[in-house]
Amino acid sequence: MSSSKKVGIITGAANGIGRAVAIRLASRGVCVVLVDIDEEHLIEVADEICSIGGECVRIVGDVSEAETSARAVAAGSSLGSIRYLFNNAGIETVATIENLELVDFRRTLEVNLDGYFLMSKACIPYMKKFLCGVIVNNSSDAGLRGMRKSIAYGPSKAGVIQFTKALCLDLAGHNIRVNCICPGVIKTALCDRFNDDLGKLAGIEGSEAQANFVEKHVPLKRWGTPEEVAELVEFLFAEQSSYINGAIIPIDGGLTAGI
Q1: pLDDT (0 to 100) of residue 3
Q2: Residues with catalytic annotation?
Q3: Which of 77, 196, 223, 248 would you label with 71, given CA atoms 20 to 30 Å apart?
């Protein structure tokens, strides 16, 4: 192991924001550990990283299981020193309390909160060893405000915000920073599925549901891209943001600014 090599662990790395962050970090010389349950797309991301001369390891697994985080940090520590963690893997369910079963409610919390807890807990000893580390947690605009038909997803993402604040306070003395981003309407497969489900309830196409929402609620009148979010995550990992700690940062085109 070369401790001079900086390693970043990215969960939900097979698609969307996680994919964009992984490729961006790899292009900057960070060795990346790619974690996802989607093996097919994870291979595609790894191939792209290799094509630009980057170094990566694939971990196929469920972030809500401790075994996955153990394999991820073992792989990361074999590459170098684990300096960065992007907790990003998540699931989303369109449902009210009347049509959501307890098992599905709990599953959302397991992935969206337990997964962040387990991966952070596994990485922190390695970050403490070098007295250096940055954790970025991916919440959502749904964590900042109430949303209809988001009885499981919204609470899970609000929990990510409080998890970030508590973790920040616990780790600051070890020179480990913890921040949280709250993306709004970002063009990802997860967002597309969410809008498809909303569209079905309204009897329209998912793309129309998304366009209607953006026009009505996003001041910039457009959706964001995974690459725009990746730029923010990269900045939060960088030395230029060394005094940003415990921050909850919307990246939503003004969606949560007000009415």
Answers
A1: 53
A2: 153
A3: 248
Among 210, 188, 187, 206, smallest CA distance to 12 is for 188
| Alpha helices (runs of H) in the chain, residue ranges in sequence order | 16-27, 39-51, 66-79, 102-109, 115-129, 153-171, 189-202, 206-217, 226-237
- Using CA atoms, how far apart are residues 41 and 14, in angstroms rounded to an integer? 5
Q: Which two tokens stand for residue 134?
A: 């940055």
Task: Look at the chain and report how many structural domains it folds into.
Answer: 1
The one-letter code for the residue type at 202 is A
Least Cα distance to 81 among 19, 9, 168 occurs for 9
Rounded Cα gap, residues 127 and 124, in angstroms: 5
Mean model confidence pLDDT for the chain: 93
What domain range includes position 91? 6-184+224-251
Q: Is residue 210 in a domain?
A: no
Residue 203: per-residue pLDDT: 79
Distance of CA 149 to the CA centre of its chain: 21
Helix 115-129 crosses helix 153-171 at what angle (to 10 degrees)?
Answer: 20
pTM given for the model:
0.93
pLDDT score, position 2 = 46
* Rg of the chain taking only CA atoms, in angstroms: 18
pLDDT digits (tens, 9 = 90+) for 173-215: 999 999 999 999 998 877 777 666 666 767 777 678 788 878 8
Token pair of 100, please? 């959501």
